[in-house]
Amino acid sequence: MAKVSKRLKAAIKQQPATALPLAEAVESLKGFGATKFDQSVEIAIRLGVDHTQADQIVRGSIVLPNGIGKEQRVVVFAKGPAADSAKEAGADEVGEDELAKKILGGWTDFDVCIAAPDMMRIVGPLGRVLGPRGLMPSPRAGTVTPEIGKTVAEYKAGKVEFRNDKGGNVQAIVGKLSFDSPLLVENIQAFIERILSMKPATVKGVYVKAVHLSGAMSPSVRVAI
Length: 225
Fold this sequence. Notes:
31% of the residues lie in helices and 22% in strands. It is α/β, with parallel strands linked by helices and 225 residues long.
């Protein structure tokens, strides 16, 4: 069993017993004590969806208003003008067959993979490598697109993807603990509103069942909806 640090033990004792309004939840999270690095803040939303029903999959992306405090590494499958626009927008690597061979060889040192529609013949076989890591380009997620430059710029600015898992949970990074509280609140509120706007028409009963915030090395705080 992993040893629990004194800081984490103290933080657990401070963990609120009830759900808090968003602004208070953020302050509570910030009050758990500093660590040697700037923790990412993650949101976890439990939804009342049935993952076995295709029309109840909640999947998409959002450009958070204040970014996520992290430089995302973006690779792009494109050629010609699309490849040029990807490079201009700051893509970390742009290519075709050689890039595919590199990934098939086990290289996945990136956060986002974007592809132009005419590149899917090359990208398709990469599903067995990229799929399990959540990196496979998809039209539904907006990562298979003719607007390559715009999409690269959005991810560089802090765009995040999300998709509910088998338990109906949606998780995403929404910033850093070092963010000023109002900026973190704005990011979280934007994410929650995005999820609320995507409620499947076939969902019966409660859609959003619970919302929690946590740091990479801190307990969670439940947010009142």
